[in-house]
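Form 7-S
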Amino acid sequence: MISKEPYRNRIELLQGTLDMLILQSLQWGPQHGYALSQAIRLKSSEALQVETGSLYPALHRLERQGWVRSEWGVTESKQRARFYSITAAGKTQLSEDHGRWRQMVEAIDAIMQDSPSEAKP
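Output:
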């Protein structure tokens, strides 16, 4: 039997959240895919780890939507890579996503703070 221990403390991202995290990370400047995944991992105190199987499809989707653009460049280790940057439309989308995220966090928090005796069907 394969142990699931490494996944015990893993946080699964809600649908749409990865796009928002990518757009936020690109606010800090253009980055290649590996740097993006590392930025998300480090900024989340290693609670969030974005796998390449999720990251690159998300980047391509964001690029098709016009929220991200990419161009070839060279990494710090002198390797050729695609660098992604946020567009003006991406900044607008990030603002909208962040507003919806705040509403959702507040709604979930209200439910989690509710005691069983206060809950009504």
